[in-house]
Amino acid sequence: MSRTPPNPPGATRPQASSTAVARLAGVSQSTVSRVFSAGAAAVSAPVRERVMKAAAELNYRPNALPGILQTGRSGIIAVVVGGFYNPFFTEFLRCVTGLLRERRLEIMLVDTASDDNLNDIVGELSRYRIDGVISAMAIHSAKVARKLESAGIPIVAVNSKRVGNMRTVSTDNRAAGGVAADVLVDGGCKRIAYLAGRDSQAQSERERGFLKRLEERGRRKPERVLAGFSYEEGHAAAVELLSAGSRPDGMFCVNDLVALGAMDAIRQAFGLSVPGDIQVVGFDDIPMAGWRAYELTTFHQDMEALARGSVELLVDEPANPRITVPCRLVPRGTTRL
Amino acid sequence: MSRTPPNPPGATRPQASSTAVARLAGVSQSTVSRVFSAGAAAVSAPVRERVMKAAAELNYRPNALPGILQTGRSGIIAVVVGGFYNPFFTEFLRCVTGLLRERRLEIMLVDTASDDNLNDIVGELSRYRIDGVISAMAIHSAKVARKLESAGIPIVAVNSKRVGNMRTVSTDNRAAGGVAADVLVDGGCKRIAYLAGRDSQAQSERERGFLKRLEERGRRKPERVLAGFSYEEGHAAAVELLSAGSRPDGMFCVNDLVALGAMDAIRQAFGLSVPGDIQVVGFDDIPMAGWRAYELTTFHQDMEALARGSVELLVDEPANPRITVPCRLVPRGTTRL
DNA sequence: CGTATCGTTGAATAGCTATGCAGGGGCGTA
DNA sequence: TACGCCCCTGCATAGCTATTCAACGATACG
């Protein structure tokens, strides 16, 4: 055990280098490198064994950094999520981490809501020579996208409008909005309301499809309340809606959290029944939508497909830079259908 | 614009080096480095300006890798979470990402349930010269901890038993278990049940404190049902318990997800009332515990404190390698108190 | 005017691995 | 024996930045 200089606080113990292993094993550094290289390198059995033994003794682990320095490829993908409050994001994260790990790519996590923050972060990611970015924020910034592009970092955005050369993968929000309209109309709803999210691509597409189908079926424009994306906001929006005296008998909500908040308001604060008095449709199919207290009719976003699309778009660079993933209605207990 | 060799698919556009900037600005590479170094380096105003202009033209971003190569410190912390299903983990993740970002540390995300997987991952993290690991798995592996230690990578574990030189930060699970017993006993419960999680430090500490206090207060051992950690498992466990004919009037659940599942079983499947027929206490205080349909009495884990403790323990390396964070009862509507 | 000092800049180097190139030895074949 | 070939190993190098040391000019002071 040789003495090493004192480390700054929090420093890792200095790692053995391949040169040190080589010295101990009585071979050259190249040979050590070959032993640890993935390809079936040409190393004789006895030498290989000696190297392995020396490596074990020194606790040697190959260092990826010099390789990155030469190739410029770090094998690291940044995943940007816009707030963890929504289980939708965490489920997406779960799927993506699994897929990236299969491809032996590392995940750098970036959590941000504000744009300023993201601006700094672009610089930070460049410093580490990130190979690409998968962005699953609720609200995307065109400015940041362009900045990444100018830095030469490819980006895939989920449920986002296309900016520059950005690749996108999206749920077919518009089609689902249409189906939501069908469900409520076919279920016999006469006075329909829409609980909207803040401005985002997903939100506006869902609303567009919903409005279009309602119009096609001869209904007038539904009442619209701004709810945001959270349970509390959904609850407040429903209270506002029902307090104002309007009594809708059908509600389409921008996502499940909003829908669940609205349901609780309808039932607890107003003593009304779902689906008896008001039918409710959500979006995302987060686990809570299936909980017995809710049994929410909603749309299942195929997270597995969204995640796979993101990774393929980023890594394989297929010809078509945009993927649309269908999503399916999950009929449960909050609608008549 | 000089020609560069073709890139492999998915490669980032090659980044300009400080040497290239230096050439364009007509200065030395050292000078460019000084302009971009944080400390107020001694560079004259006109030179600085010329360098900045050249850098902007080439879209230059400093490369962190050579520095890492020399110092051995990557500025990257790995955060290991054991499954995203529990909002507890995601909330922890949110807090930790914020704190690490403040300290200008990057986050490498590792999601794993299985140990085998983790074993590979230790090697992977060494390759990137990770500065440290924050582990928030439900179930920790002593083997992995030792392997990390032998690799010289410091580790902080949350709600885990101490292994080797590992640093730990934990909620005071045992004390909280005692308070849970008080709440149920003081609330008048006569037949108390415990819905247990799978083997983990948090689980066993909560149970230990709970049992000890019940004994101190002259109650006999509560009925114990194994539930796991999820909503579905909690639901199933409660169904099992109530179907078996035993009719507890108080329940302490290893976490909120289990408690919410149990509540839905009690109410929907058996038509019983909470807290009328059965009082329920959970653990974690995830957002859903406050939802109007549940209003679950539970213990708030101070995630902010747990996260801060983790980061400080890892980065500042204080004398005491273990931190215990108190947690507080949040009385809501599922108990009489 | 001589010297010390300071501010600014350049040259050289360390940090570690993968890889191309060359050399050495062994073996088979003519 | 001579030659060619293959297998294995070592040598040298690129990749980029921060930092140390030296050098240079200018300024200030005695």
From TrEMBL, chains A, B:
Keyword Glycoprotein: no
InterPro entries per the UniProt record, alphabetical: HTH_LacI, LacI/GalR-like_sensor, Lambda_DNA-bd_dom_sf, Peripla_BP_I
Source organism of the structure: Luteibacter yeojuensis
Alphabetically ordered keywords of this record: DNA-binding, Repressor, Transcription, Transcription regulation
One protein family per Pfam: Peripla_BP_3
Superkingdom of source: Bacteria
Domain HTH lacI-type: residue ranges: 16-71
GO MF, any single term: transcription cis-regulatory region binding
Transmembrane domains' residue ranges: none
Entry protein name: HTH lacI-type domain-containing protein
